[in-house]
Design brief:
The complex is a heterodimer of chains A (553) and B (713). Chain A has 553 residues and is mainly alpha-helical. Chain A has one domain. Chain A has 20 helices and four strands. A two-stranded antiparallel sheet of chain A has the order 1-2. A two-stranded antiparallel ribbon of chain A has the order 3-4. In chain A, strand 1 and strand 2 form a beta hairpin. In chain A, helix 8 packs across helix 9, helix 9 runs antiparallel to helix 10 and helix 17 crosses helix 18. Chain B has 713 residues and is of the alpha+beta class. Helices cover 52% and strands 17% of the residues of chain B. Chain B contains 26 helices and 22 strands. In chain B, helix 12 runs antiparallel to helix 24, helix 15 packs antiparallel against helix 16 and helix 25 crosses helix 26. The chains are: A mainly alpha (553), B alpha+beta (713). At the A-B interface, helix 14, helix 15, helix 17, helix 19 and helix 20 of A face helix 9, helix 10, helix 13, helix 24 and helix 26 of B.
Chain lengths: 553, 713
């Protein structure tokens, strides 16, 4: 079988599996968030934190829940890293420095999982399992909860109530993330990923050097790393490491895991607003952008432009031999477009234009399909913007799902779309202007600039993947990237929840023949166009000086 | 059945008690009386005339209201400043000049839009000449002369033939014919009388006959004519909700692009390219949505102006916008859906007579009936049966019996033959009185007509064969031509039409079916109307209606778009948010279309403006960076001749497109009543796809022209 045919089959199998699963999973998630029952374990959690899961929250209360929970998480994670040497199972690792501990705490709580450390030589078993792994679950659940609150804003009328944050958080973790992770972890273990709490093995290599082989609860962390679009690998090499991602099957499974919730949430959305077609329109827009990315990057990597690649007969630098060009490209696009940030190959080594596509995937705001929850709310915000501009063209005050997009709604949506571009551009510009960018580059020219741009894009959009080659572990970058991650995660949530509140307050406008049909292919096309033009154009100059300059040279 | 006939009679009586001067209800829609601002066509000469205003608007305090154009203004000042620092740089000067032009073109668009209202305001001002009011003193007989501006609410003033009415008010005594052409443009005088629904008078109009006493209801400076002047001049113009929302989005896009440009110098610096202030400003101005930013307020003003041209005054822009969103239209049956009056549609003979006989008798008996119904019988007899219209004078020794509300019959006694036609009960009574028998099928036919929603009139005769009923005239409401198609269009636009009528449900249903309205409200009282509006609004729908009577006022106020007829009471005019000077209820449909057109124009130009950015990037980015990264020259897909020429071409295109689109902004995007889907597809193709492609062509052409200039390119 030729590699191209194999890749086509791989992608087809992936799309087929997602198509098969999104419906039951989407419906199940809708049922979870609309359920009135509490499991005994959930009741126990509510009692121990003193929350009333049946109390409806208006948006400020919901937001307070999100922010308080996340702030406590950052604090806890920070302290855990600072005292890890004093806790059991420390593997002898030192406490993490304050700037890196802040960066890591911000990173895992914001579902970014940017890692300025190497897991296997820095984080103890306790830090990994009690700290990082826990955040892999709950930070993902926070994102989904906020998305569900926005969906309720569309679904409900004449009430400011958006549900209960604690109930959404706990249910999402207990009923959705943990069960799927358990199944996925078992499959991963069966397929060859490791899972233990052993000590470091020291082996002597063929050349006589000593090599430390790190053990750990890898498979379990791997499952939620991808399922929760987290991306923080147990090992520095992430999914390129054979213990995390041993073979072609696990590679396919990991890609499936990182796409499955983001691509199923639109179904949940459709179900909850009582019109599944609305969900299909959203999932189609996500799918089109993702698919365009996959085709472009795979095509460029196969064409392997550049003297070195041409001489080598393939663009295999930075890619694993056991995966090859196609599966590596598929993983790269899927991980950048889902805000996951785990990698099975090194994006730094992709050809210039491919690197540009991966950057663009993040710059679009992580919405195709985006992170768990954040992808859906980001896409819905873009839908609001698209409806506002195009909706006018049908001669009515714009409305989406029966809710009018008035001054307040557009103000909140406009603030939302300002945040990440501002963080990316200001972050990169400051780093460059202060000389901090250049000092962390390991390449010169346009590629070096891409490294800096990639780091700030990844952090601000909560992706977490790195354009390897960028020396991120400096006090400056740890701090600035940490701030980008926190602001890039929680400021948008403020606007999303405020918007949800204002939508839930409205009375619905009944649809007539004069209403813009947002469940039709025309709208999907319009949405894709609006995303590419409005968000894409913001970054055109920056992209021109990085990947475009490199790729077109 | 009988109630309907009574209604007709009551109407007749009413019209006989006052001089007959019906408001011009059937005025053709969209009619433009002489002496008023002309149609929507754009005259290039207006650009020149408005130039001084465009310069006056350069005041930063005015400019700041449009965030996008304010940024361009700041940019122009910056580039000019930097050009002064480097006076030998022709590029800097040229860019500065075109940036200033961009700002001026934007102001010009607004000034032209406003200029069209100014001409109208001037006409109105003439009507507002200083009047001297004759104020009645407390004793009720003596008068004093006071300036019109000193009148207060509650004052009683006297106006006689030739007087200009000094302020808005209600007639409390007397009847007069009034020339309202100053505000309506219509030269035919109207009747104003105390009490009832025609008591409102407007300051600035002229009494032509008789004497009336007016109770002033508005403070000077706040009169109808004052408000009109403010409205057409745009002085009272406030940004509408949707316009504010659009401005917010445009401001946020401006900030995004400001960030993209402001962060560029450190990036470029690293790449080894130094970007001057002039090119940065040029890039920024090209990227921010200047096209829509420049035309936004002109679009709003022109939308109001389109209403004014149709003789509709919107008291707020908000109402115009709401008109586009309306999903339920409440339409009064009479005058809107049907012609004002019932008309004869057929003659039905009873057993033993022929249609021709009935027609002949019906015509003869209706000659003395001057009501519209009576006239329609004569017309039908002529059209359908070829019966020449006979005149009363033709028949010698004829004794004419005129139609009165008491007898409810008309007819003639000639050559020993008595012919009568009229309400069923009256005619039956007459036949019996004359000793005749009523054919048993007469009643059946009459009932059949009633049930079908029509009104039966019996035709009877008394001759040598005795008194007997000949047949029945079927009177029915005649639906105006084209209404069915109109409602079909509205349905396609997603608008539900509800017919409001005082008729019984049976009649109402028949007419509703014939006219093709979606729903009807029969035997409607003002309370029913109000309840209907509230019910629709509770379902999230926006409701539009027309009204003229005082009892319509609460419903007019409750409706999202309430159009008061100018002939109506001041209470109605006060309650509605629009006034139709022509008092033509059919215009509601046009108002909805104008509201939609306004929103469509905004959306289309926003889409166009944003889509333009793609081409501008392809012009400017390679121009800026191809020197340091030669690969980027591949992005120069237009093959522009030189970096300077490319940037200049983009800036010039950006400025010229504003002027090129002024006519479209003023006229509005072409609107056709089709479904939202079709409309979106069409507008997206024209303004979205067109907006992507047009600048590629435009910039290339401008670049070619620039490269012809010696020393450049």
């Amino acid at each position: 079988m030729s590699p191209v045919l194999a890749d086509v089959l791989l992608v087809t199998a992936l799309i087929g599996a997602l198509a098969l699963v999104h419906r039951p999973l989407g419906d199940y998630m809708a049922a979870v968030f609309q359920s009135r029952k509490h499991f005994w374990v959930e009741k126990w959690i509510y009692r121990s934190v003193g929350a009333n899961p049946d109390a409806e929250m208006r948006w400020p209360a919901y937001l307070r829940g999100v922010l308080a929970f996340s702030a406590l998480s950052v604090l806890f994670l920070y302290l855990l890293q600072r005292v890890q040497d004093k806790l059991p199972l420390s593997l002898g690792f030192k406490p993490i420095t304050p700037d890196q501990a802040f960066n890591t705490a911000a990173s895992f709580v914001s579902n970014t999982n940017w890692q300025s450390y190497s897991g296997e030589v820095a984080m103890s078993h306790v830090t990994q399992t009690m700290g990082l792994a826990v955040q892999n679950f709950v930070s993902a659940a926070v994102g989904i909860a906020v998305a569900v609150a926005l969906v309720r804003g569309f679904a409900r009328s004449r009430t400011g109530d958006l549900g209960n944050f604690w109930a959404d958080l706990v249910r999402c973790t207990i009923r959705i993330l943990i069960p799927i992770s358990v199944i996925a972890a078992v499959i991963l273990i069966a397929a060859g990923a490791i899972q233990n709490f052993g000590d470091i093995h020291t082996v002597t290599t063929l050349t006589g050097d000593k090599q430390a082989i790190s053990p750990g609860a890898v498979a379990s962390q791997e499952a939620i790393k991808d399922l929760g679009t987290n991306g923080g690998g147990f090992f520095n090499a992430n999914s390129a490491h054979p213990f995390e991602n041993p073979n072609g099957f696990t590679n396919w499974l990991e890609i499936f895991l990182l796409l499955v919730i983001p691509f199923s949430l639109p179904r949940t959305f459709g179900k909850m607003v009582g019109n599944v077609k609305q969900g299909y329109a959203i999932v189609a827009a996500m799918g089109i952008i993702w698919f365009l990315g996959v085709v472009t990057v795979t095509w460029i990597e196969y064409a392997h432009p550049g003297t070195a690649s041409q001489l080598a007969g393939g663009a295999m630098e930075g890619k694993e031999q056991r995966f090859g060009e196609g599966p590596s490209s598929l993983f790269a696009v899927s991980t950048t477009m889902t805000s996951t940030g785990s990698v099975n190959s090194f994006h730094d080594s992709f050809s210039g234009l491919s690197g540009g596509v991966l950057l663009l995937g993040m710059m679009l705001g992580e919405i195709a399909p985006g992170g768990v929850g954040s992808g859906l709310y980001g896409m819905l915000i873009m839908a609001i913007i698209a409806v506002f501009i195009a909706g006018l063209m049908v001669g009515r005050t714009p409305e989406y799902l029966g809710k009018k997009i008035g001054t307040r709604e557009i103000k909140l949506a406009a603030c939302y779309i300002l945040i990440t571009p501002a963080l990316v551009l200001i972050g990169t510009a400051l780093a460059m202007a202060l000389g901090k960018g250049e000092s962390s580059m390991t390449n010169i020219g346009a590629h070096g600039f891409s490294e800096v741009l990639y780091a700030y894009t990844s952090a601000s959009n909560n992706n977490g993947s790195a354009f390897a080659g960028f020396a991120a572990n400096t006090e400056y970058h740890n701090t600035m990237l940490g701030l980008c991650m926190v602001l890039g995660r929680f400021l948008p949530m403020v606007f999303v929840l405020a918007l949800a509140g204002s939508l839930a307050d409205q009375k619905p406008v009944p649809a007539t023949a004069g209403t813009l049909r947002t469940e039709k292919p025309l709208f999907t096309g319009l949405l894709v166009g609006a995303i590419l033009i409005i968000t894409g154009l913001t970054f055109f100059p920056a992209l021109a000086l990085g990947p475009l300059a490199e790729g077109l040279a | 059945m009988t109630t309907n006939t009574q209604k007709t009679d009551a109407k007749k009586q009413d019209s006989m008690s006052t001089p007959t001067l019906a408001p011009h209800q059937d005025a053709p829609t969209g009619h433009k009386p002489d002496g008023r601002v002309g149609g929507g066509l754009f005259d290039p000469k207006q650009l020149l005339k408005s130039l001084p205003d465009a310069f006056r608007k350069l005041d930063p305090r005015v400019m700041v209201k449009s965030p996008v154009m304010f940024v361009v203004l700041v940019g122009s000042v910056l580039t000019t400043f930097f050009s002064f620092k480097d006076p030998g740089d022709w590029f800097g000067w040229t860019i500065s000049a075109w940036l200033w032009l961009t700002v001026i073109f934007a102001n010009l668009a607004e000034a032209v839009a406003e200029g069209r209202g100014k001409a109208q305001a001037d006409t109105l001002r003439k009507a507002k000449t200083d009047t001297v009011a004759r104020r009645l003193l407390a004793d009720g007989t003596s008068e004093e002369q006071v300036p019109g501006t000193e009148l207060t609410i509650g004052d009683l003033v006297v106006c006689e033939a030739g007087d200009i009415i000094p302020g808005d008010g209600d007639v409390v005594e007397g009847v007069a014919s009034v020339d309202e052409s100053a505000i309506t443009g219509e030269s035919a005088p109207v009747i104003r009388e105390s009490g009832g629904d025609r008591s409102a008078v407007t300051g600035g109009t002229k009494v032509l006959s008789d004497r009336i006493v007016i109770k002033i209801t508005t403070k000077p400076g706040e009169t109808f004519i004052d408000r009109m002047i403010n409205l057409v001049e745009g002085a009272a113009r406030q940004k509408t909700p949707n316009e504010i929302a659009l401005n917010i989005l445009l401001a946020s896009l401006t900030i995004v692009f400001l960030l993209a440009v402001a962060t560029l110098p450190p990036f470029a610096d690293y790449a080894g390219s130094e970007l001057g202030m002039v090119v940065l400003v040029a890039l920024l101005v090209c990227l921010i949505p200047t096209t829509i930013g420049a035309l936004l307020s002109a679009i709003g003003i022109a939308g109001m102006d389109r209403l004014v041209q149709r003789n509709v005054l919107a008291m707020s822009g908000r109402a115009v916008e709401a008109a586009g969103d309306v999903s339920t239209l409440l339409l009064d049956k009479t005058g809107t859906i049907t012609l004002g009056n019932r008309q004869a549609s057929e003659f039905v003979p009873v057993r033993g007579t022929t249609e021709a006989e009935v027609a002949d008798a019906a015509q003869l008996s209706s000659l003395a009936d001057e009501t519209p119904e009576g006239r329609s019988v004569v017309v039908l007899a002529k059209q359908k049966y070829g019966l020449r219209e006979r005149h009363q004078g033709e028949l010698a020794h004829a004794e004419w019996i005129e139609f009165t509300a008491q007898t409810r019959m008309s007819g003639v006694d000639v050559d020993g033959r008595k012919v009568r036609k009229g309400a069923t009960a009256s005619v039956i009574a007459w036949v019996r009185e004359e000793g005749g028998e009523v054919a048993d099928d007469a009643d059946t036919i009459a009932n059949g007509i009633s049930e079908a929603g029509g009104t039966p009139l019996l035709v009877a005769v008394k001759d040598e064969r005795g008194a007997r009923v000949l047949g029945v005239i079927h009177l029915k409401d005649v639906v105006k031509d084209g209404m069915r198609e109109r409602f079909e269009e509205l349905r396609r636009m997603g608008i539900k039409t509800v017919m409001i009528t005082g008729d019984n449900p049976l009649t109402a249903k028949a007419i509703a079916e014939e006219a093709g309205v979606d729903d009807f409200l029969a035997e409607a009282t003002p309370e029913d109307k109000m309840a209907l509006i509230k019910r629709e609004q509770a379902g999230g729908k926006l409701v539009a209606m027309t009204g003229d009577g005082t009892n319509d006022a609460p419903a007019l106020a409750q409706a999202d778009v309430g159009v008061a007829m100018n002939t109506g009471t001041s209470a109605a005019k006060e309650a509605g948010n629009m006034v139709d000077l022509d008092s033509n209820p059919t215009k509601l449909i046009e108002i909805v279309e104008i509201g939609k057109q306004l929103l469509i124009t905004r959306g289309a130009l926003t889409t166009f403006s944003i889509a333009n950015d793609v081409a501008k990037y392809f012009a400017i980015i390679p121009a800026l960076f191809a020197a340091v990264y030669p690969g980027l020259d591949k992005l120069n897909i237009m093959g522009l001749s030189s970096p300077d020429s490319a940037i200049l071409a983009a800036v010039i295109f950006n400025a010229l497109i504003i002027i090129a689109l002024v006519p479209l902004a003023l006229k509005g995007v072409q609107y056709r009543p089709v479904s939202a889907d079709k409309m979106l597809r069409r507008n997206l193709t024209i303004y979205g796809l067109g907006g992507l492609i047009a600048p590629f062509i435009g910039i290339k052409i401008i670049d070619l022209l620039i490269s012809l200039i010696p020393g450049i390119g």
